[in-house]
Amino acid sequence: MATEEELFANIDALLEEEPQLPPPAERARLREAAGITQARLAAALKTTTQTVKNYENGRTEPKSPRLEAYQRLLNAWAAKYPVHVAPAPALAPQPEREPVAETFTGPATPETPAVVETAPPRAPAAPAARERPAARPVMSRPPGAKKAAQPAVDPRFPHGPLAVLDGDGCAYGVGGIVLDCPARTVPELVEWTLRESGLGAAKLNRYGKDSDPLIVLTAAAAVKLGLPERLEGHEQRRSLRLPENHPVVKQVAKAKWQLTQRGFGPWARIYRKAQGRERQCVQLAILSWDALDERSWPGVADMEPPDIARVLGVYATRVITPRGSTAVSGLELMTAMRPPTKAVQDPETGNWVSGYNAGSLGTEPMDPAPPEATAEHPVVVNSGWTGGFLNEEAYQWVRSVDLLSGAECALPFAVGLDLNTAFLAASARLVVGLSDPDHFHAPKFSPKIPGSWLVDLSHIELDPRLPSPFTPDGTPPTGPAWYQTHTVAYAQELGHDVHPIEAYLRRETGAYLDPWHDRLKTAYVDTLADLGVTRDLDDRTFLAAMEQLGQADPAMAAVLAAIKATVKGGVGKLRERPQGKSYKEGERWPALQRPTWRPDIRAAVISKARVNMHRKLNNMVKMTGLYPLAVLSDCVVYPSPGESPLDFLPYATSGKAQPGGFRLGPSPGLAKLEGVQSMPWAVDLMEKGLNPARHIKGGDAVLDEGE
What we know:
The chain is α+β, with helices and mostly antiparallel strands and about 700 residues long. Helix content is about 30%, strand content about 15%. It has a seven-stranded mixed beta sheet with strand order 3-2-1-4-7-6-5. Strands 10-18-19-11-20 form a five-stranded antiparallel beta sheet. The longest helix has 26 residues, at about 600-625. The radius of gyration is 31 Å and the shape is globular. It starts with a helix and ends in a 10-residue tail after the last helix. About 40% of the residues are buried.
């Protein structure tokens, strides 16, 4: 005879089974009895009308958590709209019975319908409550956290810009939506995405193009679609591609879809030529192939699919739907905000044709002037150029230990200040060239003309306790060199005459990066506000809020990191160097074929950022008498009597920060506390020739020029 423990174990097993739904026909009957359309039910379940149709014709079954929600609804309808069964003839009057709800615990048996008590309906489980491996913790929005404002939904893309597809066929979108994806091959996934998913995003500029839908594949989803879980090879995984003879690549070609020249890698674009105005393109990102770089998307690849969808969804809404690394996305955002063409009317025929969009970079690539190029560029190799190059890079400077005073060494702390998105701040109202460079000999300098100037600034003597504003390493120049306009203009601002020897200048100019700057600035400030750091905080409260940044909501902290990486990567990508072992010096590499390969614009941003940094350093000396210990890109280290920037930053008697120096705050260009170390620690590094700012910042100053 069975023991009590065995019986209870059997009952528990039954309780843990997934709930059973009524037959498909009964599902449709209940919905129609309630007067609810399939579209309205789809909206309530956060899925598509086609998926509801599939539920009601038996093609597919819902999965958790939608399964529990759907069953709860059907149970309630069953209680309200029971099946009418004609009573059997009776010899005696039958007592009248109240209608009893049917429960769906097994196959229907209409011959002898059983009457069973209805259990209380189960509440629908949240998407984050699905059972997952312990190594991938759920990081949903904490209670009380500010919810990001939702933009108006485009009726063409009701389910948002992207979805994260898991191995069980659930595609997690923004706002908690879960779609059922029946695809079992990559071509089927592309067809489903374009025909049924309702994914995509509207263009960011009236002359631009809509963003293609993005499908992010988990490792389980990739394997289900026939892809390897990992890409292995001697190169970095992000640089690897599937071979052309791989079965999935063959499937794509057989279905008459195409891959871009980048092939089938971590970020694969699958497309057909557009039919009329309709684009046919889907972007795939494969998590287990390192599509989301840990430096740009910290912790995101290990999150649950709903949380990944939340992170990428906020980024897509505030910045752009990702099309590759954050560097690629930064570059794509430039084009999206300043499309190269617009519709113009042909005065002769009256027809509308594609024409140049003023203020953009156009559709054709533009060769740089020789000093603006890189040593391997065909402009340099084919011309035999030996006249030198622009060296407009971010600061990497350490003050000589011999220039430290005893009073400075006696201070107990070295405090690092970091400028928020310094390169983004430098791109604001930045006038750059829009036309080909013209060569001039002995031109008169004008700070309003963007270009490259050959000038001798070696005669300018500055305080050695500050880095030179003219070189990245902070050492004084030793002779004539090429400089971007902002660097030469700053020499003039410091009171020195400048006499250019020659120059490469551009006649057509414009603030090309302004809309790019505005969108990223808004995204950065709004994301900081979601993390509790707002513009109305005083300096002390601001520092306290920054110390807790990201601890309550790692998802939004990851969005913030991605926005910052988009800025640096996008600027760096303007001068992408050749990649791959097959490259030969003097050949044109793929990046040169795009109009956004513009090293002169990159140089303008970095030059302005470095000049801005030096101006603040110079003003700090005037206001406080303090000199920096080291500078690394957007981070500067000062000796301090206390552990807080409040101990040495200049404040007026009213308590307000003095303009011109470093000021604390969340906006781009303002400063935040990066870190604190002891002064002896900093001096020890300086004696070894190491940069304390690098160790406080924990990163480097290189603007990513790769993928």
